[in-house]
Amino acid sequence: MIRVMLVDDQAVVRAGFRVILEQAGEIEVVAEASNGSAAVELARRLQPDVICMDVRMPHGDGLTATRRIVAEATGTPPAVLVVTTFDLDEYVFGALESGASGFILKDCEPEELIEAIRRLASGYGLVDQAVTRRVISEFARRTPAPRSDAAAAHQLTARETEIVELLAQGLSNVEIAEQLFIETSTVKSHLGRAMAKIGARDRLQTVVWAYQNGVVHR
Q1: CB of 89 within 8 A of CB of 167?
Q2: d(CA 161, CA 12)
Q3: 123-150 pLDDT tens trace
Q4: Contacts 24+ apart (CB under 8 A), 82-86
């Protein structure tokens, strides 16, 4: 069972998401919060698998809440799914830098929300490929020049680095495999080892690491 917490200042949004998710069968909504401060406390106490996080709320925004939840987690932090109207504002990118695992539009189809929850619970951060590519492109444009951290970059083998670079361009495992003329399973293996080395929970945070450490050639 995937344990989910809903964070949104609008009760009608939380109620709608609860109905959608609980119809999926394998998803249980364990808590709701109307602001970021309450979300941090509930996340610490209940340790949900996935948190659906609004970005703009009174009494504690989603950016601050995401940062605190990820930083204060005693074990593996929950995967944070940012639910946004997607105007690419600073809140979205702040959440990405703070540890968010994925993005989805607030007016998405019910099936898309359910699939997003499933994917994040399984460690996949790239939820909607079209949305993700737009996020990555804008994030790359806004991110300052990468810090000089040769030790970080040299953690990866040449093949792992190559795959992470392609991932950061928004390519799927299948597309990476086709470009490198290798099996999809091989891509997954290399990517899994790369993520373990750099301590990234999921694919989206692997992309963030790549840009921050100069692995991606712009």
Answers
A1: no
A2: 44
A3: 776 555 555 666 677 777 776 665 555 5
A4: 82/53, 82/55, 83/8, 83/52, 83/53, 83/54, 83/55, 84/54, 84/55, 86/131
